[in-house]
Amino acid sequence: MLDVMCGRFAVDRDLDELAAIYGATPVDQVHWEPSWNLKPTQSIPVILESAAGEAEVVRRAAIARWSLTPIWSKTLATRFSTFNARIESVTEKASFKSSVKSRRAIVPAAGYYEWTTKAGIKQPHYIHLPEGEPLALAGLYSWWADPAAAKDTDTRWHLTVTMLTCDAVQTIADVHDREPVPLPADLWDDWLNPQVEGDQEFLGEAVQASLPIAARLIHHQVAPLKGDGSHLIEPTRT
Fold first, then answer.
1. In CATH terms, is domain 8-233 a member of 3.90.1680.10?
2. Among 123, 107, 127, 104, which residue's Cα sits nearest to residue 115?
């Protein structure tokens, strides 16, 4: 079963800034504005490595649809939720297992939101690292070809992505029992490298490497998420 969590997150940098952080090349003629209220199926920035018809593999900062569509799907929208996937069992899922091998991505984030419920009222919390330190969240990507589009059109191919989740660390377990997997910088190269074949053991090692970062996560209550803007992550009085 897929785990539904981390349904909103924030990215406070543009594509050029993200490319500089990850040593990537921005995709040509793509404009993307920072957002503090990103939702599933919206366009989000991702970091990936692929040849994309070129002679060499290149690290790119690209824009993807947040909800992975496997290449064999007949439609872009899938029957089941695919914006998150449990890292412990993702290799068992038909939608994701081929991406684990060689189509892994980083989803850059400033932080993400989870909700608690008290007396029937849902309260959003913003989860992030101290001092505005960015998060590099583990993801998987897939290219989906629209069968209704002509083969020589630019709109035929859609880049889609999912976030991987694992058990939450103690510091945020009171908000949610799951969390995205924050990758340390020394793992970025292997994680993105399509020549490093991924399997369940590799994913487990990524979770272990993520624990020191996850242990530093902090959170605070925020107002209900309406609209967009940096004001959404400001703490509310409790």
1. yes
2. 123
